[in-house]
Amino acid sequence: MTATDPALTALAQGWCALSLLHGRIETHIERALQASHDLSVREYSLLDVLSRQHNGEGGHLQMKQVADAVVLSQSATTRLVTRLEDRELLSRYLCPTDRRGIYTDVTEAGLKLLREARPTNESALREALDAAAEDPELAPLVRAVETLRVPV
Questions:
Q1: How far, CA to CA in Å, does 20 sit from each of 66, 75, 81, 99, 129?
Q2: What is the structure's pLDDT at 63?
Q3: Nearest to 114 by CA among 28, 49, 46, 47
Q4: Is the pLDDT higher at 46 or at 151?
Q5: What is this structure's pTM?
Q6: Are 137 and 98 in contact (CB under 8 A)?
Q7: Whole-angstrom distance, CA of residue 26 vs CA of residue 41
Q8: What is the mean pLDDT of residues 3-21?
Q9: Is 110 helix (H, G, I), strand (E, B) or coil?
């Protein structure tokens, strides 16, 4: 295969379209969350991921798992956790069975903000997808996103 191979060109175009769709959606949601709730997309995602933890087997996430879930490095995730902890939206505590482990939980204030921000996030996502569906290059990707059923 060469760089001018039609299969590679099509693959690169598909990746560019996917990246464009992601960027448009994230930018639209970011503006909506910032304007209404003083939250970034990453902050919202972190609160959302951590709010799904539970006390059962495997119910608490290690920092690496959290970093993977919000698509950040571990150091960037730690900085993000610290910012939200400073705003009293998260709290950290030592793992009761392994004193080396640190868990992070969403506080009541964090859960309240997440509940308030969730409709904003969902409507901004819908608006961004609807706008992208008007672009013939992005419309097939929008349809694919709309049909995804990912287990939570």
A1: 25, 27, 28, 44, 12
A2: 83
A3: 47
A4: 46
A5: 0.86
A6: no
A7: 7
A8: 83
A9: helix
Q: Buried (b) or exposed (e) across 31-50, using 16+ Cβ within 10 A?
A: ebbeeebebbbbbbbbbbbb
Q: How confident is the model at residue 150 (pLDDT cuts 50, 70, 90)?
A: confident
Higher pLDDT, 87 or 1: 87
Q: What pLDDT is attached to residue 99?
A: 72
Q: Which amino acid appears at position 80 of this protein?
A: L
Cα–Cα distance for residue pair 14/12, rounded to 1 Å: 5
* One-character DSSP codes across 9-64: HHHHHHHHHHHHHHHHHHHHHHHHHHHHHS--HHHHHHHHHHHT--SSTT-S--HH
Residue for token pair 């799904």: 52
List CB contacts of 45: < 8 A, sequence separation 6 or more: 69, 70
Whether the CB-CB separation of 88 and 107 falls below 8 Å is answered with: yes
Residue 3 pLDDT > 70: no
Please give the structure tokens belonging to residue 152: 């939570």
